[in-house]
């Protein structure tokens, strides 16, 4: 059962409303999402049935009455949210009894779920235990639409830990972060400064793919935050590189954008942990804006110099 507004922590509700506003949402249409594909198929089927009745039956008061009722399912009307949820077929990958409307809803969990996430993350004493904890955590709605838990790749004992946003389609299919086009570009970026997946550690803020590759909602980021913070603590890298806006804003607790922050060394702090951090542009952004690669090249050179200074080379 979904939480009511009174069950949702004020800060989570405010974050969700802010997310909706930034996404361009300016009004409420329905309380429950509607599967428009199923609705269109039903309309087409209804029109076929009406046409069949019109050719086979005489025009009587009864036939006219039936036609009037069936016309209520036409393009000029829409079923109630409850009716739409009942009619929607089961989605592939969704659990039995779950409609696509229910599977795709942005449901903000109650405060108890956030507490469970923090306790579960804190209980992990190794990276393997953290992965097992995430595999058993059912509080994030993203896991129900994703195919795989995309945990990490590379060397967990590496000096540098790269943290992106969330898995895409290819990552979800393979269960490995950064294996699509953005991942191939990241590999070339690493190679340019003498790193690879054996000498670097790669993960994401969010371990499950958001539907349609959308930006993770604020409450989803907050729900996964304890796990990524624990991940950094357990991996204990010498340097953390945040790739893109989501990882940078979340881990550095800032409202500034990545273009304002990149190029400067920051400090990532969590509890007693304090690690040098370099925010830079996400490889997916560079694929859309190749002219910005020059900025990332400067960041990579700064990272290379920092590693050399640390190691005395």
Distance between the termini: 58 Å
User: pLDDT average, as an integer?
Assistant: 82
The run of helices and strands is: HHHHHHHHEEHHEHEHHEEHH
Helix content, binned percent = 40-55%
Gyration radius over CA: 24 Å
Topology-level CATH name of the largest domain: Uracil-DNA Glycosylase, subunit E
Instruction: Classify the beta-strand content into a percent band.
Output: 5-15%
**Strands of the biggest beta sheet: in what spatial order?**
1-3-2-4-6-5
- Secondary-structure-based class equals alpha/beta
- Write down how many β-strands occur, each being a DSSP E stretch of 2 or more residues: 6
- Contiguous low-pLDDT stretches (5 residues minimum) are 57-104
- State the fourth-level CATH superfamily of the largest domain: Uracil-DNA glycosylase-like domain
Tell me, what is the CATH class of the largest domain? Alpha Beta
Largest beta-sheet characterization: 6 strands, mixed
The count of domains is 2
CATH architecture of the largest domain: 3-Layer(aba) Sandwich
Number of helices: 15
Given the C-alpha coordinates, what overall shape results?
Answer: globular
